[in-house]
Amino acid sequence: MGVWVLGGKQTDFARNWARGGLEFADLVKEVVEGTLEDCAVAAQEIDVIHVGNAFGQLFTGQGQLGGMPATVQEGLWGVPSSRHEAACASGGIAVLSAMADLEAGRYDCALVIGVELEKTVPGDVAARHLGAAAWIGHEGQDAAFMWPHMFSELAEEYDRRYGIDDRHLHAIAELNIRNARANPLAQTRKWAFSDASFSADDEANPRVEGRLRRQDCSQMTDGGAGVVLVSDRWLRRHERRPAASITGWGHRTVGLPLHRKLERSADQPYVLPHVRQAAVDAFGRAEIADVDALDGIEVHDCFSMSQYMAIDHVGITAPGESWKAVESGELEIGGRIPVNPGGGLIGGGHPVGATGVRMLLDATRQVTGRAGDYQVEGARRFGTLNIGGSTTTTVALVVEGASDGR
C-alpha cells in the first residue's frame, strides 16, 4: 500500500497574524484553501482530516482545532477530523496518523495541516508556554528560557563525551539563515546580520541560556502548512499522477526528562539512540542502506545544537563527529548531503505545530523540482527528521519523487 503526496501549501512564515487582527480561523482557511487548490482536489473529495497543533489553547485560548477546517470550509462539514499534539513533532504525528488511515483502508484521501500562532503574547510569556513540553516541575525550573536551557544541556553532554566547539554551532545557524535568503516564505529572508551575529560577540549575538546564543535559536513564528495524502486506490479511481510518495517512516517516543535520556545512553555511542533508531527505521522501510541514498534532508534545527545532534544521528558522520560535516561544506546545497536547503527552523521559521508538515512539503517540492531558488539539483529522494520536546517524540520520513511509470 503506497501513500502518495499530491502537493500542498505553506504560508509566509514572516507574517505576524495577530498584528493584522487575524486569528486561527484566518490561518486555517488560508492553509486549507491553498492546499486544496495546489492539489486540484475539491473539499468534498477529502475523506479525513488531521490537524497538527501544539499550543493553541495557551497562545490563543482556542482549543478543538480539529473542528476549525470545517468551520472555515463548508465542503469539509461532516468529515472526520482530529487534532494531534506532540510538541514540535505535532505535525509529524498528524502525518503519520493520516498515513495509518490510508494504509488501513479506512479512507483514501487525507488532508493534513499544521498550524500555530505564537506572536499573540510577549516573548517571555511565549517561552513559558513552549516550556509546557518539558516535564513541568521536574526539570528546567531555574531556567528563564526552558528550551535554550535544555539544548544547552545537550551541548554540554556532547562536550563531556566528545568535545564540542561552539563555532560549529554558530556555523550551522549561519548556513541556515544564508539558505533562507533564497526562500520566499522564510521568516528571516529579509533580516540583517553581520559576521559578528554568528560569533561569541556578546553584543551582536548575546547569550540566551548556558552556551546558546541568540542566533543559535529559532524564533517565535506564526504560520501553517498543509498537504493532501492519497492511497493507491484513490490514484487508480482518479487517474491522477501524484507528486511524490512517502516510502519510509520511523516513529519513536521516550520519557519526558532530558536527564533520563542522557543517563540511559551513557554507555552508548549515540547520545540519543532513539533518534538514531527512528532514522534507521525510516531508511529500512524505504529499503535504502543509509543517509547517503538521500539527495538531502530536512532536520529539526529548533536550535543549532539540535541540528548538530541530527547530523551524526542520521548518519552523515560517526557519533560525536558532526563538526566534520560542518567544516567540510557537505551540508551546503551542492554538497554531499544538503541539510535544510530552505533555511530549516532557524532561518525559515518554526510555527511549532506546522513544522513536521512543512518539512514533508519541502521534501516533496525538492523531489519534484518545485523548490525554486533553493532547489537541490536532481533531487529524487529526501529525508525529514522532526522532533518534539527534548526529542521525546521523533518522526522520520523518506520521500521520493513519483516514477515516470506512475
3D architecture notes:
The chain is an alpha/beta fold and 406 residues long. The chain contains 14 helices and eleven strands. A nine-stranded mixed sheet has the order 3-2-4-7-1-8-11-10-9, with helices on both faces. It is globular and about 55 Å long. The mean pLDDT is 97.
Strand and helix layout:
Elements: E1 3-10, H1 24-39, E2 48-52, H2 56-60, H3 68-72, E3 81-84, H4 90-104, E4 109-116, H5 123-130, H6 146-161, H7 166-180, E5 207-209, E6 212-213, E7 223-231, H8 232-238, E8 244-253, H9 258-264, H10 273-285, E9 297-299, H11 304-313, H12 322-328, H13 344-348, H14 355-367, E10 381-388, E11 393-401
Parallel strand pairs: 2-3, 2-4, 9-10
Antiparallel strand pairs: 1-7, 1-8, 4-7, 5-6, 8-11, 10-11
Major sheet description: 9 strands, mixed
Helix content: 25-40%
Number of strands: 11
Strand order of the largest sheet: 3-2-4-7-1-8-11-10-9
| Form type | globular
Low-confidence spans: pLDDT under 50, at least 5 residues? none
Elements, N to C (H/E): EHEHHEHEHHHEEEHEHHEHHHHEE
Alpha-beta classification: alpha/beta
- Average of the residue pLDDT scores: 97
Spatial separation of the terminal alpha carbons: 14 Å
Radius of gyration: 20 Å
